[in-house]
Design brief:
Number of helices: 0
Structural class: mainly beta
Largest sheet: 7 strands, antiparallel
Order of helices and strands: EEEEEEE
Radius of gyration: 13 Å
Helix content: under 10%
Strand content: over 45%
Number of strands: 7
Distance between the termini: 20 Å
């Protein structure tokens, strides 16, 4: 992922079976932001409910909805309703 200034941003997303998630972003090995919350799945629609973030999140973005484009044992592709972009998540071991 790249920031608006072209810097590479590394994302670490943890989706847990207890319906909670957390993610952190870093650039050049330095943390720049993080968030956590809960998630829910209805059919092929994944909704992220942001509870805590290290930055001010507008009220309109506290519930983020993605459609699952594809999913298998190692990879998940989501289409964001907020940005209109597709995001690929790869399972780490």
């Amino acid at each position: 992922m790249h920031g608006p200034d072209g810097r590479v941003i590394a994302m670490n997303v943890i989706v847990m079976s207890n319906m909670k998630f957390s993610w952190s972003a870093s650039t050049n090995g330095k943390p720049v932001m993080d968030c956590s919350g809960t998630w829910e799945l209805v059919e092929r629609r994944l909704t992220w409910h942001y509870v805590k973030c290290s930055f001010a999140l507008p009220e309109s973005e506290k519930d983020d909805v993605d459609d699952i484009v594809s999913i298998d044992a190692t990879r998940m592709v989501l289409a964001s309703h907020l940005s209109g972009e597709a995001h690929v998540y790869v399972r780490s071991k």
